[in-house]
Amino acid sequence: MDQFECDECLGDRATSSGYEGVTLAYAISVLEGEVITLCNYAVTPFVTDGSNKDARETRAYREMLRSRGKKVPKISENALRDELVILPGAAMSPADVVRALEKFIEHVEKDGMYIGKYKDDFIREKTAGEPRFVRC
């Protein structure tokens, strides 16, 4: 089947080569609703060296500061704050998007959401409770 030009599996693309292209992006906020826009996108994975500067815009870093009573820096102007951005691939139908979102919701409700990384450990936050380290 020659439908796709890239035969890398999801895990390889998400952790090494990344994604780029053009799509309709759905930016969704609990407070502001939804905005749809045609956009160029590039998602570029990187390997952290464990330094603090790698993690400063992650939720885990911000929550760690907050829990210690320290000042939490402002989020960069163009960074995601309280938004979720959905970038459907060109081969995804509306039904595919719904199934993928349902899987994600089920995962977050059951296991929590990964919110950061420290050295080789991911930090996971459940919908209720404190963030926890999760061994890779």
For this entry, give a set of tags.
single chain; alpha+beta; 3-stranded antiparallel β-sheet; 30% strand
In brief:
This protein is an alpha+beta fold. It has 4 helices and 6 strands. The mean pLDDT is 81.
Instruction: Record the strand order, biggest sheet.
Output: 2-1-3
Mean model confidence by pLDDT = 81
Please summarize the sheet with the most strands: 3 strands, antiparallel
Provide the gyration radius in Å. 17 Å
Report the end-to-end length measured between terminal Cα atoms. 34 Å
Tell me the helix content: 25-40%
Structural class, please? Answer: alpha+beta
Tally of helical runs: 4
Secondary structure tally: strands: 6
Strand content: 25-35%
Order of helices and strands: HEEHHEHEEE
Low-confidence stretches: none
State the shape: globular
Topology:
Blueprint: H1 10-17, E1 19-29, E2 33-43, H2 52-55, H3 59-67, E3 83-86, H4 94-111, E4 113-118, E5 121-125, E6 132-135
Antiparallel strand pairs: 1-2, 1-3, 4-5, 5-6
Molecular structure report:
The protein is of the alpha+beta class and 136 residues long. Helices cover 29% and strands 30% of the residues. The protein is built from four helices and six strands, in the order αββααβαβββ. It has helices at 10-17, 52-55, 59-67, 94-111, and strands spanning 19-29, 33-43, 83-86, 113-118, 121-125, 132-135. The strands form two sheets. The chain has a three-stranded antiparallel sheet with strand order 2-1-3. The chain has a three-stranded antiparallel sheet with strand order 4-5-6. The N and C termini lie far apart (34 Å). The model has no long low-confidence stretch (mean pLDDT 81).
